[in-house]
Records
---
Amino acid sequence: MKEKYGPGTTAIHGGHGPYDRGLPTDSVVAPIYPSTTFAFDTVEDHQNSIFGDLVYPMYTRAASGNPTIRILESKLADLYGAEAVLATASGMAAINYTLMHLLNTGDHVVMGRCYRLTHNIAQMILGDKMGVDYTLMLSDDVKDLPKYLRDNTKVLMLDIPSNPMITVYDLEEAVKIAHERGITVVLDETCATPINLRAFDMGVDVIANSLTKYMCGHGDAVGGAIISNANFVQAIRKGLYPRIGAAISPFNAWLIHQGLKTLHLRMPRHNQNAQAMATHLEGHPKVARVYYPGLASHPQHELATRMMSGFGGMMSFVVKGGDEAGTALTNKLKLGKIGTSFGQAETMIETGWMSHYEWSIEDRVRFGIPPGFVRVSVGLEDADDLIADFDQALAQIEIDDTKTILELVGAGELEWKPTVTTME
Ligand SMILES: Cc1ncc(COP(=O)(O)O)c(C=O)c1O
C-alpha cells in the first residue's frame, strides 16, 4: 500500500503482494494458491529467477515463497508500517529463526518474563546446542537491565504484555539501554498486536510473534511472523528459512489474512471485555490478586497507559486457596473453555499448573506464578455473561485462604533459571 491509511482501512485493503492482480478482474478476497511448486516456461527462466531479475514463485518453502503467503506478508508489513515480513509455520518458528539468526556460540541473550517455550528455546536450543548463554531478567523494571548485560550480550528479548503474568516493560527505555551497547531488541507482542502497541515507533529492531492468536483471531490457523527492516528479513528468508523449512501453509496464510481484516474491530472488544472482567474480579472476595495493566493496581499501569492504546484481552488472577481452588473454579465455568491457546473469539482459560506443567511448583512461584493462578484470554462474548459465568463458578468453590501464597520465592534475586524438562 503506498498511501497511508488508518489501521482499519489497512487491515482490510492492505496486502497486495508482488504476485497479486494476475487476473483481468480483481478478486476481492485474495485467492489461495495451494501449489507447492511453480513451473517455468524454460530452464533459462528458472535460472533468471535465481540469478537475474525475474521475481517468480518457485517453491512454497523457498525464499521465493508462495503468492498467498506473500499477500499475507505484505498486509502485515502495511499493518506494522514495516519494510518487510517473513511469515512462518508458527510463532515458535518465528522466534527460533530470529534468535538463531542473531546469536552465535559464545554470545549472550537476556530475556524478560517471556512465554514458557521461549525460555525453553534459550535453554534447550540456544544454550545446550549452540553454546549461547542466557539470563532471565527477573526484574520488571528496565532500569535494572544494565545489571543483566554483559560484554557479549547480543540480544534482549521481551514479551509485552507477557504471557501469562501480563507484565509490561518500558520499551523505549529498554531500547535506549540496549542500543547504547549495540544490542538488538526483539519483541514478541503476540498479546498486544499492532493495534494496542506501536512497537516500531519505540525503536524495537525486530518483532517475532505468533499469528495464531489475535492476528488470526478465530483459532483456526497456526502461523508466525518476523517483522523488521528489509535487510534483516531478507537475510533470514535466504538463510535459515529454506534450510530449516518451517514455512506456513498457504491455507493457514489465507485464513490469517482473512482474520486480519477484523483485527481493528476485535481488539477494542477484547480490551473492553478484559477490563470489565479484571475490574469485577479485583473486587471479588475469593480473588487474591488480578494481573491486568488496565487496573490502577497493576505495577506498570501508568507505563502501560502511556505506552499502549489498549491493555489487551489477556488477564490473569489468583484465586484464594491455591491450585485446588483454581482447578475447581476452572472446571465449573460454562462459557470459558479450558484450553491452551488464546486470542480468539471464545474465552479460553488455563491455570498456572496447566501452562507451566513442566516446571516444578517452586520454579513456577519463583518465576511469579503462584498457586491458584488462572490465565484468561477474554473473548468476544458479552462481558456481562462472562462475569456471570465466573461469578457462578466462584460461588461454587470452597476456598482455604491459608493456602494462598502471593509472595514470590526468591523475590529480588538477580539470576535464576527454571529447570527445563522435556515432556512436550
Ligand atoms: C507470547 C507467545 N508467543 C509465541 C507463542 C507461540 O505461538 P505459536 O503457538 O503460534 O507457535 C505463544 C504461544 O502460546 C505465546 O503465548
---
Amino acid sequence: MTPLTSIDDVLALFEAHGDDRYDEELSQRDHARQTAALALAAGADDALVVAALLHDIGHLLDLAAGGTADVPRLAHHERVGAIALSELFDESVTAPIALHVEAKRYLTAVDPDLVDRLSNGSRTSLGRQGGPMDETELEHFRTRRWFAEACALRRWDDDGKVDGLVVPPLSAHRSTLERVARPQP
Ligand SMILES: [Fe+2]
C-alpha cells in the first residue's frame, strides 16, 4: 500500500472510489462528509474533524487495491487508514482513526442498546472485530490516550449514515486538511 503524501492524494482517492458504498447503505463519500459535519457541529477541533472525515479511508485504500467489502484485500481498515495517513498527519488525526473500531467495541459494551442502532454493515463487522469488550478490555481502553476522541469519533461515525442528508461537499474541508497536515517539504 502506497502512503498518502498529499491532500491531493487523499481527495483523488475519494474521487476514484468515494461513490462505492463498501459495507454501508450510503456512499463512502457521503458517509465521510456526514461524519465530519457532525464533528464540526459538536465543536471538535480541526484535527478531530479531519479524523472524522478520513476515518474510513482504509476502505477506499482497500477498493484501490482491488478489495471489496465481501473480500477485502487489506484487513483492519482502521489500521490501514491510520498507517497510510501517518506521513501526512500526526497522531491527533491517526490515533482516533486507528482506535475507532475498538471504540465501537467499547461503546457497545457500555451501552448494549447501541448494537441495535448500528448500521447493518457495522453490526455484522462487530462480531468479526471481537464483539463488545469484556471488563478487562474496558478498563484498559479507558486508560488509552485518545480514548475520548476515539469514542466521540465513533458516535459521529454511527450517526453519519443518513441517506440523502445534505452536508457540505468534500472540497469544503480542503483548507482544514491543509491546516492540519504536517508541513510538506
Ligand atoms: Fe465509518
---
Amino acid sequence: MGHQISRRRFLECGAAASALAVVPLRTWGHPSYAMAGDELDFPLVDFHAHIESDFPLERAAQVAKERGVKFGVVEHGGFHQTLASDDDLKRYIERLSGQPFYKGMQAEGLDWMECFSKEAVAQLDFVLSDALTFPEKDGRLVRLWTSEAKVVDKQDFMDRYVDFIVRVISQEPIDIFANPTFLPEPIVAEYDALWTKERMAKVIAAAVKHEVAIEINSRYNIPSLAFIRAAKDAGVEFSFGSNAHGEEAGRLDYCLKVAKEIGLKRPDMFAPAPADKKPILRRTLARLGVGESHPS
Ligand SMILES: [Zn+2]
C-alpha cells in the first residue's frame, strides 16, 4: 500500500491551502506563549511541527524561541515518503542532532514499519500517525482533509472511520495519535452529533490499551472538550500539536485553552519514552514477526 501523491507533495502544490484555516503570517514576529506557559506545570511543546524547504530547521529554531515553545519536528515516513529507509532515518537524525528539537516522524500508511528496522525507529524521540488517509470501501485511499472526501451515509462513514482509527492505534507502534476525531468538510458541522459517546469510547479504549497519547490539535481545534475530558478520565496522555507546515508552527491557542479549562497537569502530558521503551520496541507488531524486519 502506498500513496500516489504524498501528503507533503500535495500540500506543497498548494491545492489544500484554501481549505485550511490558517491565520495570516505575522511578519513582525510571533506572539510568545511564555506567559501562558508559566501557568502550566509542564513544558510547552509543539509535537507536530513540519519542516519544509521554505521552513528550514534554522527558521524553525528561531520561531520556537520567539514563541517560547519547544518543537517536536516531524518528517513524513513510510513507503513513497521522504523517510523510507534506515538510511533516510539516519541522515534525518544526524541533521537534527545538536538542534533544539525533539526528533519525530509522521508515519504514513498502516505498513510504514516495514520500511525500517526497529532499532532505527527507536532512535527517534517519537512517532505520530493519524487516520486521515482513509481506505474507502473500494480500496481507494481518500485524503479526508481534501475535497476528495465524500460522505454518502454519515453513520456508515463514522462507523468505518472509527474502526479505521482503532486499527491505526492498534496496529501502528506510535507514540501519538494525531489529528484525532478530525471530520471531513461535508460533515464537520455535525461533529458533536456524530462523535457519540460510544464512538469516542472506542477510540479512547484503544489509546489506553496501547498506551498511545492523543494530540490536542490547534490547527483544527480538535478533539472536542467532551472527548478530552473522557480521555483524561480514562488515563490517556495528551500532546499539543499545531500540524503547521511553516510559520504557524508553535501556535497552540486551542491547546492552551483546553489545558486551562480542563486543568491538564504534567501527569496528563506525553513525554518521549526512554530509548529502550519506545513503542516500536515495546509493542508486538501485527504485520511483522517478533524480531523480524523488512527494510525496503
Ligand atoms: Zn502533519
---
Amino acid sequence: MFIGELSMIPASKTKAAASSLKEKTDLYLGALTYHGQICGEGVVGWTGAALRVTTYLPTSTSLLAKHHSKAGRQAWDDLCQACQSHPRWQVMGDRSEKRTTDWRRARSLYVSTDWFDPGPPILAGTTGQPIPAYLLPLSDSEIQDVNGWAGFYRLHDKMWTCAEDRRLETQTYKLLADPNSELSSWGRAACRTIEERTGLPTYYHLFRHWGRRDAKREARRTCPGCNGRWHRRPTAKYGIDSFEFVCRRCRLISSLADFDDERLAHIGEYRG
Ligand SMILES: [Zn+2]
C-alpha cells in the first residue's frame, strides 16, 4: 500500500474560497474512492493556510490521469480552479513494489473484502493479488458498482463485529453469509458483470463464521446455491485454491467456519 499527500492553497484568502476548496476536495476524493484509486478513510485538514490530504493508494500509479473516471477528471479540474496554483500529489511507498497482476494473465478472479481490508476487492484467482477495478475493461458505473458494494460490505462487517445486541449481530451476519441476501446478491451480480467483461470466471467469497459442531458435518455441507458437493482440500496458500469450498457452477468460494454454533450454522447453508 502507498500513501498519497496533497497540499493546496485556496485561490484567495476569503472564507468563501477556503470553503469552496474544501467542498471541491471532498467531491474529488469521493470520485477517487468510487473509482478505487484511493483506499480507506483519508485525512483532510487545514494546517495554516493549506488544506492537506493524506490517503492510502492501492498502487503507486493509481492517481495517473489515465486511470480517472469522467467524474474524477471533472472533479480534478474543478479542484484546480479553486487552488492558487496547480496542486501535485506526492506519492510515498516502497519502490520495490511488486507489479500489479495483469488481469489478462489471470485465469480467474474473485471478489472479497472485509472491515480491515481497505484495498481493491477484486483479486487474481491464482495469486490472490488485488487488481484495482480501473485496470479492468469495466465502465465507470460498473467500477463504481463493485467499489460501492465493497464499501457497504465493510460497513456491515464492522457492524457485525461490533454488535453488542444478539439480534443485530444475527441480522448483519445473514447479510454477509447468506448467498441470497441483498448484499450477497449485489456482490454476485458485480461478479457476473466482471466475468462478462473479462471472460474470466469470477467467484464471490461467501463468509462463514458459525458452523456445525461436528467437523465432518461442517465439511460435508453442500453448496448453498445448487446443493452440490463443493468441499475439497485446499491445494494452495493463496487465491481460490486456498479455500475449502468452491462451486464452479454457482461461482462461490467459502471457508470452514471459525466457531461452532448449532443455532446459527444454518445461515448460509442450502435451504432447498
Ligand atoms: Zn453450487
